[in-house]
Amino acid sequence: MPKLDLSRIEARGGSGYPGRLAAAMAGRTGQRLGDAGGLTQFGANLIHLAPGAMSSLRHYHMEQDEFVMVTAGVCTLIDDQGAHEMLPGDCAAFPAGDANGHHLVNRSDAPAAFLVVGTRTETDTAFYSDMDMKVTVTGRTFDFTRKDGSPLTADQTGENS
């Protein structure tokens, strides 16, 4: 089993969210550990959160399982049941199809990190709990729409405002 050298795996920032929604991901970077190790059946990513940063907009997946484990610092898991402080070693699981919108936020003044492992499927649909948005994924194409499939408007994405 080859050991991965984390110092040699690029930490990427940015987001695929449309318009100004992408700015909400400032302070978040990820290292694609599964890709670096040649994995194809599931993804494994180490996510780094600067103070005040969040992992994603609150969401849930219809076709993909997600598992997270805090590896450094303090993260706050926010889901439909509220806010839950998570310390290194604390874990959470989100089965595909469970409509429990979730994300992790770094509410501390120090960096934090967590490992996220998830199913890789050719397609997926995810819904965003705090807004009228869904994403339909086919391969590496992400199509963001309203939950009913109609187009997003500029006021939803912050474009041209």
Report on the architecture of this protein:
With 161 residues, the chain is mainly beta. The chain contains two helices and twelve strands; from the N terminus they run βαβββββββββββα. The N and C termini lie far apart (51 Å).
Please render the helix and strand layout as text.
Layout: E1 28-32, H1 33-36, E2 42-49, E3 59-61, E4 66-72, E5 75-79, E6 82-86, E7 91-94, E8 103-105, E9 112-119, E10 123-128, E11 133-138, E12 141-145, H2 154-157
Antiparallel strand pairs: 1-2, 2-9, 3-10, 4-7, 4-9, 5-6, 5-8, 10-11, 11-12
Task: Put the structure in a nutshell.
With 161 residues, the chain is mainly β.
State the order of secondary-structure elements, H for helix, E for strand: EHEEEEEEEEEEEH
Number of helices: 2
Largest sheet: 5 strands, antiparallel
Rg over alpha carbons: 16 Å
Oligomeric state of shown chains: single chain
* Helix fraction by DSSP (H/I, runs of at least 4): under 10%
**Which class do the helix and strand fractions yield?**
mainly beta
Strand arrangement in the largest pleated sheet: 1-2-9-4-7
Strand fraction equals: 35-45%
Number of strands: 12
What attributes does this structure have?
five-stranded antiparallel sheet, 40% strand, 161 residues
